[in-house]
């Protein structure tokens, strides 16, 4: 009996361990297959199409003409230099403003911090294109509302603005990306040890010297990561330059790719060749970004006393800071929404002829195009949010919890869409599904969106897994629970805040997305973002403004619904 008992108890354990191992292998295979179809093949086809003469059969005939035309053209290199100047300047400006706002809200005694935190991230609810449209209504050279007001008040001509210039293009893009800079920097500031700054103050250093010599060096890698992230995103931005750059000689690479694809005759090989240049730039930026994240661990300053940080007393400067925050809200949120509202609910944006009317709003709402676009947008955004988070959960679980060789490579593949601008990735998806039953359907758009936002879902859910102690899973297994039951009863409930954040974030990004959809949509698969772009291209700015307001309402409604359904805050309340 003594020898039999251990065998009887060990067999179930061995069986459970074997079944877990087999389950892990199946999971890894499933994740590899999903990433191959979603990410690897479309990205590879971008490169293949750059050396192919026939876009319908990329493997038929190979040629280097398109690559030679792209890489050997001095004009293209000039466009590349201007694109990089635009994107890098945008990254630096957005990060500087975001870091300054993060420092004010994290270090000073400025009042109403919760309100101002919402103010800082409010531009996220306005798509880049709709935000640019609002700025066009405000700062067009002759018809802009601010310019009209300036002339009415008799102000000097030099106070007038013209948003259809290269400088204002950078400013508008940077203002859109400020929330990203704030979110990427604020976490490092909040986790930084307060003793470092207090020691600096005790040694006679002032607030400015402490910020420059202590705080800034401690968060410089977070700031570098922010600069690279924004630069990569701005490099692939198509919609804003296409709208504001109509009268400029400067055409970014993303716009050049769009024109090569949608021009007559279409030159898909040239578009793919230009895409390889953008991918190369993004890969370099992504490498610097990830290197910054890795090296940030050398500057760990988190201690148990960080929450007792002494706030910097602003004194009379408090009113100046509040005024600057109000100005930020005015420029990034209040004025743009006022301009959109005036355009949507007035027969004219001329200050002398303003006549409030809901005619334009009613006309757009009654349009069959809007009904089709709204239904498609809700369906595509919901399926994309759920699908991206599901794939992200499986991928992050495979890389964070299952130990095997090649997990780092798998994670790199999942994050690689960050290095491929949306309009370039769309050319790969287009080539992959051209001639198949999926071409011209909503399914192809969902596939492209899931792949595009998989890095965001993987990053958020991966952070959630990293915060959960593995001992909880081990205790569940020791009690005899299967892997599926352990995930359903322990991991997923604890992951609810991360899942809620990922689902909300991917939905918001999908509703606003134009760069990927612009090459994949058809009249039957129209989306709200494309509908607003088409209205603007037809000079129907009031209709485009109406669609932009509907987009914002849809995003706010989704946040309210998801917070009610997933209730991410309940977990912290029980804890």
From TrEMBL:
CDD domains: TM_PBP2 (cd06261). The chain crosses the membrane at residues 26-51, 84-106, 118-138, 158-178, 222-248, 268-289, 319-340, 378-397, 409-432, 438-455, 541-566. It comes from the Bacteria. InterPro entries: MetI-like, MetI-like_sf. Pfam families: BPD_transp_1. Residues 80-289, 374-562 form the ABC transmembrane type-1 domain. Its main location: membrane. It is a multi-pass membrane protein. It is found in: Cell inner membrane; Cell membrane. Keywords: Cell inner membrane, Cell membrane, Membrane, Transmembrane, Transmembrane helix, Transport. Belongs to the binding-protein-dependent transport system permease family. This is ABC transporter permease.
């Amino acid at each position: 009996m003594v020898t039999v008992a251990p065998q009887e108890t060990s067999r179930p354990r061995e069986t459970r361990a074997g079944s877990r191992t087999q389950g892990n292998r199946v999971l890894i295979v499933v994740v590899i297959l999903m990433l191959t179809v979603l990410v690897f093949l479309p990205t590879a086809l971008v490169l293949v199409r750059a050396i192919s003469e026939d876009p319908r059969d990329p493997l038929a005939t190979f040629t280097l003409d398109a690559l030679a035309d792209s890489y050997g053209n001095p004009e293209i290199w000039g466009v590349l230099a201007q694109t990089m100047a635009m994107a890098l300047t945008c990254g630096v400006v957005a990060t500087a403003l975001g870091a300054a706002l993060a420092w004010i809200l994290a270090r000073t005694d400025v009042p109403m911090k919760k309100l101002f935190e919402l103010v800082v991230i409010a531009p996220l609810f306005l798509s880049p294109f709709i935000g640019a449209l609002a700025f066009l209504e405000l700062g067009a050279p002759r018809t802009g509302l601010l310019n009209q007001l300036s002339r009415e008040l008799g102000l000097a001509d030099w106070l007038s603005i013209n948003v259809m210039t290269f400088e204002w293009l950078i400013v508008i893009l940077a203002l859109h990306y400020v929330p990203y800079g704030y979110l990427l920097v604020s976490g490092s500031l909040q986790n930084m040890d307060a003793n470092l700054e207090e020691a600096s103050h005790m040694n006679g250093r002032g607030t400015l010297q402490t910020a420059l010599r202590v705080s800034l060096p401690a968060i410089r890698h977070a700031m570098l990561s922010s600069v690279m992230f924004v630069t990569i995103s701005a490099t692939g931005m198509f919609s804003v330059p296409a709208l504001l750059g109509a009268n400029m000689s400067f055409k970014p690479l993303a716009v050049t790719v769009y024109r090569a694809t949608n021009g007559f005759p279409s030159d898909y090989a040239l578009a793919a060749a230009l895409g390889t240049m953008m991918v190369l730039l993004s890969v370099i930026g992504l490498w610097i970004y990830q290197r910054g994240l890795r090296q940030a661990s050398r500057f760990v300053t988190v201690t148990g006393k960080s929450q007792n940080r002494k706030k910097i007393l602003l004194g009379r400067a408090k009113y100046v800071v509040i005024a600057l925050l109000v100005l930020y809200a005015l420029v990034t949120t209040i004025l743009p929404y006022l301009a959109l509202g005036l355009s949507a609910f007035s027969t004219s944006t001329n200050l002398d002829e303003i006549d409030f009317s809901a005619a334009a709003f009613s006309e757009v709402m009654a349009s069959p195009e809007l009904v089709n676009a709204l239904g498609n947008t809700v369906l595509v955004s919901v399926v994309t949010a759920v699908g991206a988070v599901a794939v992200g959960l499986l991928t992050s679980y495979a890389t964070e919890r299952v130990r095997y060789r090649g997990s780092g490579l798998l994670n790199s593949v999942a994050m690689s869409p960050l290095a491929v601008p949306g309009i370039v990735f769309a050319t790969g998806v287009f080539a992959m599904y051209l001639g198949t039953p999926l071409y011209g359907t909503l399914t192809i758009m969902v596939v492209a969106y899931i792949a595009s936002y998989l890095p965001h879902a993987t990053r958020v859910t991966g952070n959630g897994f990293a915060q959960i102690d593995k001992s909880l899973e081990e205790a569940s297994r020791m009690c005899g629970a299967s892997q599926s039951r352990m995930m359903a009863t322990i991991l997923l409930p604890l992951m609810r805040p991360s899942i809620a954040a990922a689902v909300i974030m991917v939905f918001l990004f999908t509703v606003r997305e134009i760069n990927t959809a612009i090459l994949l949509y058809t009249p039957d698969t129209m989306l709200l973002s494309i509908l607003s772009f088409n209205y603007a291209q037809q000079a129907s700015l009031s209709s485009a403004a109406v669609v932009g307001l509907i987009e914002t309402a849809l995003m706010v409604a989704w946040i309210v619904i998801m917070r009610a359904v997933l209730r991410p805050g309940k977990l912290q309340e029980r804890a």
